[in-house]
Design goal:
By secondary structure, the chain is of the alpha/beta class. The protein has helices at 73-84, 89-105, 131-143, 175-182, 205-214, 229-239, 243-249, 267-276, 284-289, 297-303, 319-334, 342-349, 389-392, 420-431, and strands at residues 2-11, 14-24, 27-32, 40-48, 50-55, 108-115, 146-153, 191-197, 221-225, 257-261, 279-282, 306-309, 371-374, 398-403, 406-410, 413-414. The strands form two sheets. Strands 3-2-1-4-13-14-15-16 form an eight-stranded mixed sheet, with helices on one face. 52% of the residues are buried.
Amino acid sequence: MTTYWCERAWLPDGIADAVRIEVDGGKITSVTANAPREGTVLSGLTLPGFANGHSHAFHRALRGRTHHDRGTFWTWRERMYSLASRLEPDSYYRLARGVYAEMVLAGYTSVGEFHYLHHAPGGKPYAEPNAMGEALREAAADAGIRLTLLDACYLAGGIGIEPDEVQQRFSDGSAANWAQRVGEMREGETFRVGGAIHSVRAVPEEQLSEVDNGTPADRPLHIHLSEQRAENEQCQAAYHWTPTGLLWDNGVLDERLTAVHATHLTAGDIKWLGEARSRACFCPTTERDLGDGIGPARTLLDAGVRLSLGSDSNAVVDAFEETRALELNERLASERRGRFTAEELLAAATDHGAVGWDEVGELAPGAGADLVTVGLGSVRTAGIEPSGVVFAASGADVRNVVVAGREIVRDGAHQLIDRPETVLAKEIEALWQY
């Protein structure tokens, strides 16, 4: 049994003072407000751990390297494919280890890794077919973060187009082969396996339901959906449906589905997603980095769609930046303030259910013991109301992080990996040297 005494804590019914949280076996056993000071003292505001609903860990090596020629989408895509062609299991493990450590330092306690870099160059399977996924599992374990490997089926280079040389590394040839490979992975205490349809461009219509059926019913299924207008146009031309409509027509829309980005939706798309009680995962820092646009987050929430957030390309890794961007982007698009309450923003930011950890995401008895404590005395947070932390704080204000009852960050320092910034610098430089 471990006891934490929180100066302030954001509980399900609001922020309380002097909160004692008792933890045993990776779970919270009791929460008591106005309690005597005892146990490990957490100064500042303690929140539930943040959930990173959508990540491509290897994209972290692109940060600060895609701005040439004014940084078009195609500049970014070419560099991303170049990077994908260089990675192998050992280098991916080393890179991801640093990326996941950065995430924990920024306040994330779980991550959904949208994983499509499966095979060796040319598409040849490794001797261990899931070598790349296993590298991510080991990296997350070393960094102390919960990982859901959202293993992505990726079969085509576009609608009716064969995969190119780089994309061959992503493809299993068929949904059946994909499901067989993914089925060989075994879960652990802080590791789970879900499924993903890369996009309606990368999985032919006749195989969409096979990916759905090949993902266990109690695990999440994700898809990149309507990220760019061109995707919608291509889908309409080929199938006479929007991407959302195509999923609906093939029986893939349901409560476990998360539509990542969901940027360019029709009113009908929003209605379908809401009726299905699906989720939408917004990735504001990446969506603005790529110039994708601003999705209809408030309208989706009002329609019954549950919202979550992700760091996607990891151009920025900061749980607070993603959280407030949900509101700030809405302000820009609608020319109105107050689109979300602070409580709604925190709910989206801590939706671990989107990546299959339904038991995590609140400071309450029976919940997974994931805690993030933010200092309230930095130049960013000094003088704020505690509930304003989602608008004022940054990842640099994270002081302590507990994941599944285990202290991973203490006083702003990662306890498992020494100097993650050095790890990242070394591995990223090595990847671009050849």
